[in-house]
Amino acid sequence: MAQFRFVMRSGPVVGKVYPLEAQEISIGRDSTNMVAINDVEVSRRHARMELRGSAYVIQDLGSTNGTFVNGTRVSGMQVLNPGDLVAFGEGIVLAYERPMDLNATVLSSKPPQTAVQRPAPASTPAPVHASRPAPTPAPVYSGQVPAGPVPIPPAATPGKKKFPVWIIFVIILFVIICACVGFFLVIDQLSLWCKVVPFLVPLLGRTC
Prior knowledge:
Layout: E1 4-10, E2 17-20, E3 24-28, E4 35-36, E5 47-52, E6 55-60, E7 67-69, E8 72-73, E9 77-79, E10 85-88, E11 92-97, H1 104-117, H2 119-123, H3 125-131, H4 138-142, H5 165-190, H6 193-196, H7 201-204
Parallel strand pairs: 3-4
Antiparallel strand pairs: 1-2, 1-11, 3-5, 5-6, 6-9, 7-8, 7-10, 10-11
C-alpha cells in the first residue's frame, strides 16, 4: 500500500484518490502522467514529484497557471507534509495525506490537541469581564475636576506692571532744568538782566 496519496478536493472528480507509490511521479493533463488530471487549468506536463527519504518534494515544470502549496506558489523544490493542500491553477486542489491505516496514531493524536486548546480561550475572557466593572468609579472623580482650575484666572492679574514713580520725578526735574536754562539764555541774548532779574546782576558781576 502507498505511503502517501492525493485526494481531489476541488476539480473535475472530487474525492478521487491518487496513490503515490513511485520514486518519481509526473503530474499533468496528458494521460501519460502518473497523476493525470483532465482539466484546462492543468498543463500537459504541469509538475513532478520525487521521493526523498520519507517525504515527497514537488516542483513546478513551468506550467501556465502555476503550482501552489497551501496558497503559496512553488518556485523551486517544495517539501510536502501530510495535510498540505496542493493546487494546480485556481480550480484544482488536491489534499496530500497518508492513508488512514498507516497513520492512525498520528490522526488520533491531533483531535486531543485541538480539544485542549479550545477550552483555554473560553476560560481566559472570564477574568477580563470580571475586572471591567472596576473602572466605573472613575466618572465620579472626573466630575470634581472642574472645581480645581477656578483659581487659575486671577493668576493673569500679576502680569500687569506699574509705571515707576521715580521716572516721573526725573522727567519733571529735567523739564524744569531745561526751562530755567532756556530762560536765562534768552535773557542773556536780549540783555534783559536789569529788567527781569535785577537781583541777580550783582551776583553775576554785571552792571545795568
